[in-house]
Amino acid sequence: MIISSWCFICAFAVLIDKVCLEVTGVIGGSVVLPCSAKHDCKPQDIYVHWRDKNGKIVHDVIKGSQTRTQNSPYKNRAESFPAEYLKGNFSIKLINLTHSDAGKYICHIIHSSELQIVELIIKVSLQDTVEAVIGGSVILPCSTAEHDLKLQNINVHWRQNGSTNVHDITKEQAIAAQDQHQRFKNRTEAFPEEYVRGNYSIKLNNLTHADAGKYNCHITPSNEQETVELIIKESRSKSDTVGTSLLWVCTVLLTGASCTYYL
Ligand SMILES: *[C@@H]1O[C@H](CO)[C@@H](O)[C@H](O)[C@H]1NC(C)=O
Ligand SMILES: *[C@@H]1O[C@H](CO)[C@@H](O)[C@H](O)[C@H]1NC(C)=O
Ligand SMILES: *[C@@H]1O[C@H](CO)[C@@H](O)[C@H](O)[C@H]1NC(C)=O
Ligand SMILES: *[C@@H]1O[C@H](CO)[C@@H](O)[C@H](O)[C@H]1NC(C)=O
Ligand SMILES: *[C@@H]1O[C@H](CO)[C@@H](O)[C@H](O)[C@H]1NC(C)=O
Ligand SMILES: *[C@@H]1O[C@H](CO)[C@@H](O)[C@H](O)[C@H]1NC(C)=O
C-alpha cells in the first residue's frame, strides 16, 4: 500500500506542486492542515494517508477510522475529525508546533485517488506589524516556545532594517549596550522577568519617524528569527480629529444647544 501510494505521489508531484495551499502556525500552537475530497464514498472504504516532506507517517485513516500508527515526531500530535469524513473533509490538526514541522505535507485520499499538498509555515509570532505614534512607545514582540534552553546561553539580537543595532540581550548587558546604535541609546527596555517564559520582546520609547521599518529578533543558539514591521503614525491622524469634531457638532445639533464649536 505504502509503495503504491508513493509511486502515485511521484508521478503526480509535478502537477500537484501548482495547487499547493499555505497555512501558517506559530511555535507551541496548533494548526489545521486542510484536505478535502471531491468525491464521497462509504465510510468503510475511506483510506487517507498524511505524509510529511520526508515520507514520515503523520496520520492515517484506514477503513474509515483514524489510527495511531504515527512516526515519532508526530506521535499524539496529529488527529483528524471523524465526524467530518462523510463530508469528504480529511483535514488534520497538528498541535505543539515546533520549527521542524515547517514544510510540505501530502494528503493522499487513496479511495478517490486524490492528492493535496499543504505547505506549513512556522513563525515565532503571528504578529507581523505594530503601529505606534510619534513620541509614544511600543512593544516589539519576540517569543520562543523552546523553554528548555539554558538562559545564560541565550543571545537575542534585535536589528532595524537588517543591520542597525537596536538592542542585544546577552549575559554581558553592559558590553552589549556599548554596541547599541546611537539612535536607540536609552530608548530600549527588555523584560528580564519574562525571559524564563521565552519572551524576548523589547519596548522602544520616545518614538520618531526614523524608527519606522522592519525589526528582526534573532535568537541564538536556537537560531529562531522573527520580523515585525513598525509603522509610525502622527500623534493624531487628521481623519480622527475631524471625525470627532463632526460627531461633537452632530451631538450638539441633536440636543438643540446653540453654542459655537471649533473643528
Ligand atoms: C503538548 O503540549 C502540552 C502543553 O505544553 C503538553 O502538556 C503535552 O504533553 C504536549 N503533547 C505532546 C504530544 O507533545
Ligand atoms: C474540516 O473540519 C475541520 C475541523 O472541524 C474544520 O476546521 C475545517 O474548516 C473543515 N473543512 C471544511 C472544508 O469544511
Ligand atoms: C543615556 O542616559 C545616560 C544616563 O542616564 C546619559 O548619561 C546619556 O547621556 C544618555 N544618552 C543619550 C544618547 O541620551
Ligand atoms: C512579553 O512581555 C511583554 C512585557 O511584559 C508583554 O507586554 C508581552 O505581552 C509578553 N509577550 C508574551 C507572548 O507573553
Ligand atoms: C522619553 O520618554 C520618557 C518616558 O515616556 C520620558 O520620561 C522622557 O522625558 C522622554 N525623553 C525625551 C528626550 O523625550
Ligand atoms: C527602514 O526601512 C523603512 C522601509 O522599510 C524606511 O521607511 C526607514 O526609513 C528605514 N529606516 C532606516 C533608519 O534606515
From TrEMBL:
It is found in: Cell membrane. Residues 1-21 form the signal peptide. It is a single-pass type I membrane protein. Gene3D superfamilies: Immunoglobulins. Keywords: Cell membrane, Disulfide bond, Glycoprotein, Immunoglobulin domain, Membrane, Receptor, Signal, Transmembrane, Transmembrane helix. GO terms for biological process: cell surface receptor signaling pathway; cellular response to lipopolysaccharide; immune response; negative regulation of T cell proliferation; positive regulation of T cell proliferation; T cell costimulation. GO terms for cellular component: external side of plasma membrane. Residues 28-118, 119-229 form the Ig-like domain. Its main location: membrane. InterPro entries: Ig-like_dom, Ig-like_dom_sf, Ig-like_fold, Ig_sub, Ig_V-set, T-cell_Activation_Regulation. This is Ig-like domain-containing protein.
